[in-house]
Design brief:
This protein is α/β, with parallel strands linked by helices. About 45% of the residues lie in helices and about 10% in strands.
C-alpha cells in the first residue's frame, strides 16, 4: 500500500542549528495522539453508552482490546471494513459476551470536543519544534477533517492516520512513518498518548513518552521536557 506523504512546510523560519546547547538539541519533534489528547476522550462517551445499555463498565474497551489485531475495531481503523462491516463484526463480538450494543452507537461515541488549551500549546510548540499528529482513525467517524477538528489538524506539519497508512498504533511501523516524514530519529521525539499500550513501542524505539491522563499534568511534563512554558 502506498503511504501518503503528509508533510507540510515547517512553521516560521526555525532552523535546526538554532536548537544547539539546549534541551532542544535533543528533542526536535513533538508527536501527539488526537482523541483523548487534543480532544476530550471518547472513553467518557463509552461509559455513558454502557450506562444507557446497562452493561458493565469498560465493556466496550474490553471488546476492542480482545484480539487487538483482528477485531472489528482494528479492522475499521485500518480501513479494512466499512461502517456496516464494523457494526456487524462489533455487534457479534458484543453478543458473544452476552451484550447487545449497536455498533453505530459505539461510533457515535467518537464525537469529541477540541481542548482549546491543547491547541494553544501546539501553536507555541510549532514555532520551535517539528510537530506531528499520530491517530488511529477511520475513513468516517472520528476523522479530524472538518469543523474545529479540521482546524486543529491544520496546525500539524505531519499527519499519520491509520485509515490511510494501513497500519495502526501500537505497530512500530506506524511510528517509523512519522519519523521518516519528519526526518528525525525516534530519540529526537517526544510522544503524547492517552493509552499506555501505544506508548510502549514508542518508548522502546527511543522516544520520550508522556501518558495523558490529566491533560494539564501532561502539558506540565511536556513543558519540562521541552524547556518552554506551555
Amino acid at each position: 500500500m502506498t503511504v501518503v506523504d503528509y508533510r507540510r512546510q515547517p512553521p516560521g523560519n526555525v532552523a535546526r542549528a538554532e536548537r544547539c546547547n539546549t534541551v532542544r538539541s535533543v528533542i526536535e519533534a513533538v508527536l501527539f495522539d488526537f482523541g483523548g489528547v487534543i480532544t476530550t476522550s471518547p472513553f467518557d462517551n463509552f461509559a455513558l453508552l454502557e450506562q444507557r445499555r446497562s452493561v458493565p463498565a469498560d465493556t466496550i474497551r474490553k471488546i476492542n482490546s480482545t484480539n487487538p489485531d483482528s477485531n472489528a475495531w482494528a479492522q475499521y481503523e485500518r480501513n479494512d471494513v466499512d461502517v456496516a462491516g464494523f457494526c456487524e463484526l462489533f455487534e457479534a463480538e458484543a453478543m458473544a459476551l452476552g451484550y447487545e450494543i449497536p455498533g453505530q452507537e459505539v461510533l457515535d461515541c467518537l464525537k469529541t470536543e477540541i481542548r482549546p488549551f491543547m491547541i494553544d500549546a501546539v501553536r507555541k510548540i510549532r514555532t520551535s519544534f517539528r510537530t506531528a499528529m499520530l491517530t488511529n482513525n477511520f475513513s468516517a467517524g472520528d476523522d479530524p477533517g472538518s469543523g474545529s477538528h479540521g482546524d486543529a489538524k491544520a496546525l500539524f506539519e505531519v499527519i499519520i492516520e491509520s485509515s490511510k497508512a494501513g497500519v495502526r498504533k501500537p505497530t512500530p511501523r506506524f511510528y517509523e512513518l512519522a519519523c521518516e516524514a519528519l526526518e528525525v530519529a525516534p530519540s529526537a521525539c517526544v510522544f503524547l498518548d492517552d493509552l499506555g499500550i501505544n506508548l510502549k513501542p514508542a518508548r522502546a524505539m527511543g522516544m520520550t513518552t508522556i501518558k495523558v491522563v490529566d491533560p494539564h499534568v501532561a502539558l506540565a511534563e511536556l513543558s519540562q521536557v521541552l524547556g518552554m512554558d506551555l
